[in-house]
Amino acid sequence: MKRLLGPSLLLLLGTLSLAAQAPVPPPPPAQAGPHEGMGRGHRAERLARSLNLSEAQKASIKAIRDKHKAELAQDRDAVQSARSALRTAMKDSATTPAQLRPLFDKAAAARFDLIMAQRATHQEVLAVLSPEQREKAAELRGRMEGRLLGRMEALGRGR
User: Fold this and answer.
1) Residue 24: helix, strand or coil by DSSP?
2) pLDDT above 90 (res 106)
3) What's the whole-number mean pLDDT along residues 41-51?
4) Residues in contact with 53: Cβ distance below 8 Å, sequence separation at least 6, in sequence order
5) How many CB atoms lie within 10 A of CB 35?
6) Which of 41, 105, 121 is nearest to 73 (CA)?
7) Are 21 and 41 in contact (CB under 8 A)?
8) What is residue 39's DSSP assignment?
9) Mean pLDDT of the chain
10) Distance between CA 4 and CA 105 in Å, rounded?
11) Which DSSP category does 115 fall into?
């Protein structure tokens, strides 16, 4: 059974939430390189087109994203801070395992809080989509997971 909250699912959620934003205009053709102008805005707009999102759906997704933006930023900062504290303690050879355990637990709890906030956002976004759009999003997520896994395996980081 596939994991419900993997990196690619969270990436899809972020991309869906970005799809509600106005499209980012591409750079002028004379200045554009082969991959310029292909940032998040472009992917989000392409995903919005793939799912055939209505303007109302885009507005709803943007409102959901805006509602959760501060909480997600705060949770990401907490994860980064907790991981940093753990890394610093791990580098110090005088730090005992008993001292490391609470730092690890704090980092794990912060990561769990972030995942739960992302899940709540994702569930709200899914509620905006029609059953057909949810099915299409799942199909796109599966393709993206396959590409991501292929890239990880190519780098020697496969599961």
Assistant:
1) coil
2) yes
3) 84
4) 19, 20, 61, 133
5) 7
6) 121
7) yes
8) S
9) 82
10) 22
11) H
**What tokens appear for 68 in the block?**
């959760």
| End-to-end Cα, the chain, rounded Å | 15
Pick from 6, 24, 2: nearest CA to 122:
6
Residues 6+ apart with CB under 8 A from 75: 110, 113, 114, 117
Q: What is the pLDDT of residue 30?
A: 45
C-alpha 22/C-alpha 101 separation (Å) is 45
Q: What is the rounded distance in angstroms from the CA atom of residue 128 to the CA atom of residue 26?
A: 28
Is 100's pLDDT higher than 80? yes
Q: Which of 45-49, 100-104, 115-119, 120-124 has the lowest mean pLDDT?
A: 45-49
User: Which residues are CB-neighbours of 95 under 8 A, at least 6 positions away?
Assistant: 89
pTM for the model: 0.67
Spell out the domain ranges in the chain.
7-154
3-state secondary structure of 26: coil
